[in-house]
TrEMBL record:
Residues 42-263 form the Metallo-beta-lactamase domain. The lineage of its organism: Bacteria, Pseudomonadati, Pseudomonadota, Betaproteobacteria, Burkholderiales. It comes from the Bacteria. It comes from Rhodoferax saidenbachensis. This is Glyoxylase-like metal-dependent hydrolase (Beta-lactamase superfamily II). It holds the Pfam family Lactamase_B.
């Protein structure tokens, strides 16, 4: 455990749910942990005791990716953890594959509706229908203009045509829209939606005052910093400013709030973690600004400034998006200026004065 983690508290210690089983973390709130075949090797999912139209059951928050192993784990959960009750609705905090990948299957399996923000639903639906699915010529061109124009990377991007649909083959044909500030009655408790930006189009965290529990999704993680990226669909976005502004919404919650993150272990120390994330990104921004003072830099040049570890292609795509996000934060703040070279690459230099 590093120094930053030591400033947080993990009420359950090192306890983790076994495959296909749950741990109850609060009254009527169960924790499921499912494996992912990535460097980030797990996701946390949640069962909330519910009742809709007089029918007792459960709401599911997040789903895991479309994967036979995940389906098998869900079947074990159905057998051992539902107490003979049905799934009544499926809630997705956002549209990233590990959160929505099995929503279509769960909704069909239980004849349950999907609840998600409107923007994330539409982006997920478009991604399922798009022929390139977060790859292809537009993605390759975006990476090239930010300095990743080597032949191998460009070839992989051009041929990445089914990345999203492999993990999210479809989404339900209709949905219930989650709105910022909306209150959901889930069983005996009221849960308030808190929107977040910078990581996903319109992420929704859920806070229950009665339980003093925050389902933070990917907006509030205890061990790692959430990926904050700029994409070709919104090429001049200031994603980092949006993210930092979003997590500040959680400052109004009690310091004693039990945070249920999408990755890592449930923790308390919410206000401390918010400050840690601000400090982390401030330190990264200082490094980026110093690099751009030394010489005009593309996002590809900034990747090793932000990330010292070796990365595979999948991780590099996230790192490029993060590098652009940090450059854009400084650019939008007037601390960097941007030029396009004869090679078509965008480079950023410190603003004079």
């Amino acid at each position: 455990m590093n120094d930053l983690e030591q400033r947080l508290h993990y009420p359950l210690g090192d306890a983790l749910p076994e495959s296909g089983r749950c741990i109850e973390v609060a009254s009527g709130v169960k924790w499921i942990r499912m494996a992912l075949p990535f460097a980030l090797n797990h996701i946390n999912l949640w069962l909330l005791r519910d009742e809709i139209d007089g029918v007792a059951g459960w709401s599911v928050v997040d789903t895991c990716i479309h994967r036979d192993e995940a389906k098998a784990q869900w079947e074990e959960v159905f057998t051992h953890e539902l107490e003979g009750l049905p799934i009544l609705r499926v809630i997705a905090t956002h549209m990233h594959p590990d959160h929505i990948g099995l929503a279509h299957w769960l909704c069909q399996r239980w004849n349950a509706p999907l609840w998600i923000s409107g923007l994330d639903y539409q982006v997920a639906r478009l991604a399922c229908l798009a022929p390139t699915s977060f790859g292809g010529a537009r993605t390759a061109a975006f990476f090239a203009q930010h300095g990743l124009h080597d032949a191998e990377t460009q070839s992989k991007l051009l041929n990445r045509r089914d990345y999203f649909t492999t993990l999210v083959p479809s989404v339900p044909d209709d949905y219930h829209r989650l709105l910022d500030g909306q209150t959901l009655r889930i069983g005996a408790h009221a849960w308030r939606c808190i929107s977040g930006y910078g990581h996903a189009p319109e992420h929704m965290a859920l806070y229950c005052e009665g339980l003093n529990v925050l389902i933070g999704g990917d907006m509030m993680l205890p061990r790692i910093s959430t990926n904050v990226s700029v994409y070709e669909s919104e090429p001049e976005a200031d994603a980092l400013a949006l993210f930092l502004g979003s997590i500040d919404k959680f400052r109004s919650l009690p310091a004693s709030t039990l945070v249920l993150p999408a990755h890592g272990k449930p923790f308390t120390g919410l206000h401390e973690r918010i400050q840690q994330l601000h400090d982390h990104h401030r330190a990264h921004l200082d490094k980026v600004l110093e690099a751009c003072r030394q010489q005009p830099s593309s996002a590809a040049d900034i990747i090793p400034v932000l990330f010292t570890r070796a990365m595979d292609f999948h991780q590099t795509t996230f790192a490029l998006g993060e590098a652009v996000a940090h450059l854009h934060a400084l650019w939008h703040a007037g601390q960097l200026q941007r030029t396009r070279g004869a090679d078509g690459v965008l480079r950023f230099a410190a603003t004079p004065g």
